[in-house]
């Protein structure tokens, strides 16, 4: 299993401890330090059973990809350094794949904690495999910390897109959902902690800027999928509204041109 980390000395130990508390231990634990300038690597060195890979700062996608390259197991799982696994996580997920050997990837339900308080998931993030692909086009529903997948599948699809600073998980799951069925374990087997300032989801404004990049790449590979084009139209409309609101003229011009292009394309599909 792979834990990417960048300057998370305050939460990394908690994440590692949650892995060491598993009822079914992973084959290996790999922490990839993405060029931290705090003491994150020193935290890892406190655990003899945890392998440490240090790299220059290249982003979370490169960290996860390099961790998978280093892994020797048939299956890989991910854990963000500010999340935790529940003690039965790997045990439940491994049993699920033994019962469903045709499935190469699965994810679990999740618990959210914000500012130290447990909160209910918004309806749009509730876990269900019904229309999973269509719902995933809007936003990322699947948490990386909940995923287990065959390493060969990860390698075949090309891993996380290292050109995306954020929404790299959104991109990968959509590529996989085109051809794979995701298994769902309907138990809250991970905890996601929010409310801290260094979350990638709050670091960048206009997350749809990255989603449309992922969707346009997906469109290149699946040009006749009307659902992708329809979502691009929806998101470019939102981005155009935002650009007008904040007087970003150059961005507004770009979004308007892309919107017109996809509106024209949609009518011909």
Instruction: Give the distance, in angstroms, between the N- and C-terminal Cα atoms.
Output: 42 Å
Biggest sheet layout: 6 strands, mixed
Fourth CATH level, the homologous superfamily of the largest domain: Spore Coat Polysaccharide Biosynthesis Protein SpsA, Chain A
Count of helical stretches: 11
Total beta strands: 9
Provide mean pLDDT, rounded: 95
Classification by helices and strands:
alpha/beta
Enumerate the spans where pLDDT stays under 50 for 5 or more consecutive residues: none
- CATH C-level class of the largest domain is Alpha Beta
Whole-angstrom Rg: 19 Å
Tell me, what's the shape?
globular
User: What's the helix-strand series?
Assistant: EHEHEHEEHEEHEHHEHHHH
Predict the CATH topology of the largest domain: Spore Coat Polysaccharide Biosynthesis Protein SpsA, Chain A
Characterization of this structure:
By secondary structure, this protein is an alpha/beta fold. It has 2 domains: 202 residues, Alpha-Beta Complex (Spore Coat Polysaccharide Biosynthesis Protein SpsA, Chain A); 61 residues, no CATH class. Helix content is 44%, strand content 19%. Strands 4, 5, 6, 7, 8 and 9 form a 6-stranded mixed sheet that branches. A 3-stranded parallel sheet has the order 1-2-3, sandwiched between helices. The longest helix has 20 residues. The protein is globular and about 55 Å long. The chain starts with a strand and ends with a helix. The mean pLDDT is 95.
């Amino acid at each position: 299993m792979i834990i990417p980390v960048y300057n998370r000395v305050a939460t990394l130990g908690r994440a590692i401890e949650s892995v060491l508390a598993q009822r079914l231990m992973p084959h290996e634990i790999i922490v990839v330090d993405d060029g931290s300038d705090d003491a994150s690597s020193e935290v890892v060195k406190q655990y003899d059973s945890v392998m440490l890979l240090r790299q220059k700062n290249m982003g979370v996608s490169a960290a996860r990809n390099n961790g998978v390259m280093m892994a020797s197991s048939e299956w890989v799982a991910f854990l963000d350094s500010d999340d935790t696994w529940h003690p039965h996580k790997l045990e439940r997920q491994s049993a699920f794949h033994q019962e469903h050997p045709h499935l190469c990837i699965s994810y679990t339900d999740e618990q959210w904690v914000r500012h130290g308080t447990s909160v209910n998931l918004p309806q749009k993030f509730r876990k269900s495999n019904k229309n999973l692909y269509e719902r995933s086009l809007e936003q990322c529903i699947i948490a990386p910390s909940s995923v287990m997948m065959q390493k060969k599948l990860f390698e075949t699809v090309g891993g996380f897109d290292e050109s995306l600073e954020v929404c790299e998980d959104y991109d990968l799951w959509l590529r996989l959902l085109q051809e794979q069925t995701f298994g769902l374990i309907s138990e809250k087997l991970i905890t996601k902690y929010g409310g801290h300032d260094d979350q990638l989801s709050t670091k960048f404004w206009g997350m749809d800027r990255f989603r449309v990049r992922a969707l346009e790449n997906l469109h290149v590979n699946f040009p006749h999928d009307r659902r992708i084009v329809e979502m691009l139209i929806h998101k470019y409309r939102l981005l155009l509204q935002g650009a007008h609101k904040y007087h970003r003229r150059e961005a507004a011009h770009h979004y308007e041109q892309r919107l017109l292009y996809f509106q024209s394309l949609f009518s011909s599909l």
